[in-house]
UniProtKB/TrEMBL annotation, chains A, B:
Protein name: TetR family transcriptional regulator
Annotated signal peptide: none
Gene Ontology MF terms: DNA-binding transcription factor activity; transcription cis-regulatory region binding
PROSITE patterns recorded: HTH_TETR_2 (PS50977)
Residue ranges occupied by any HTH tetR-type domain in the UniProt entry: 3-63
Residue range(s) of DNA binding per entry: 26-45
Keyword DNA-binding on entry: yes
The UniProt record lists the keyword DNA-binding: yes
């Protein structure tokens, strides 16, 4: 998952939004950082929300499809599926931790844009919950509250971009370890 | 842990910061919401950062001391200590989820203030890590990476205020369930 090419506008916008948050950033900030005149910004993206959603689009593109693909790669084993999906959630950060770190600001968007990006997160949550429930049904996971545990797993994955700063090769190791932590959290016992 | 009494200034500030974030809020916003003149705000708190840190002070007050007390209540059993400390981290949200949800904006503060509040989080992380390592040393926890797992546990606890909106009695149940999820995550086996 390579870092996507961002236009100069979006590169400037990423710097501004990351530093000041969605609410604290003005179109003027972005114009200055991008070295692009304000009318050009308005022409391409309409307004500040348009610029922000264009960035989020890069951050969430294919996220759900990749999570489904990871699940299917896990074949019929809930424990492999869970580990693979958790890894896919983390590996997404490789597109750029700063870009993924913008996502909490989704709550500031207007309803149609908010819904669009929240559907991605809801979709991943539903996918993960299905795996947790299936593992529990088959007696592989001893988890007592699948809904709350799934939420906790997603939260712990979502927080990684806010502190992770190291290089990609090590990041793969972190992603795999998170797969193992997730398996513990659902009470998977290899010898169960 | 009762909701602390906030001054009218801080109540207005909480509304403003919660809605617009630290960077997006102006002293004028706070003045309007609090119904308090700007010179009065400056007199009591110096500037916007002063107002924000006064709120954080309420949110983090006694946090570390309560976490230590929870650990000590767990006696000599790492599994009880871990569950109690995780519960104490969650119960803190009862002072007001909106107040705790301001904490990610600590990164926008000037270094001395940032350090002061980050020391609280670092302290809780160190406390939790000590328990995880002790449980592992005694063969009670099978966790393979105590540092990363402790980080994941804290992250999952920290995210709760951002989605939890229900009433306090149910919140205690959530806190206890998080204690159980944490025990799973470190690979605790009651029959181990």
């Amino acid at each position: 998952m390579a870092q996507p090419e961002l236009s100069p506008i979006l590169r400037g916008a990423l710097d501004a939004f990351y530093e000041k948050g969605f609410r604290g950033t003005t179109v003027r900030d972005i114009s200055q950082r991008a070295g692009v005149a304000m009318p050009t910004l308005y022409y391409y993206h309409g307004n500040k929300e348009g610029i922000f959603t264009a960035l989020l689009e890069c951050a969430t593109k294919d996220f759900l499809a990749r999570a489904y693909a990871a699940r299917d790669e896990g074949g019929d084993k809930p424990e492999v599926r869970l580990a693979y999906v958790v890894e896919s959630i983390l590996l997404r950060t490789l597109i750029g931790p700063r870009m993924v770190a913008l996502e909490p600001d989704i709550r500031y968007l207007s309803a149609p844009n908010r819904d669009r990006f929240e559907r991605v997160r809801t979709g991943v949550e539903r996918l993960l919950l299905g795996i947790v429930r299936e593992g529990r049904r088959r007696g592989l996971f001893t988890v007592s509250d699948p809904v709350l545990t799934t939420r906790a797993l997603l939260d712990m994955c979502d927080a990684v971009p806010s502190w992770y700063v190291e290089c990609p090769p090590k990041y793969h190791a972190v992603a795999q370890k998170y797969g193992a932590i997730a398996l513990n959290a659902v009470g998977y016992r290899a010898d169960g």
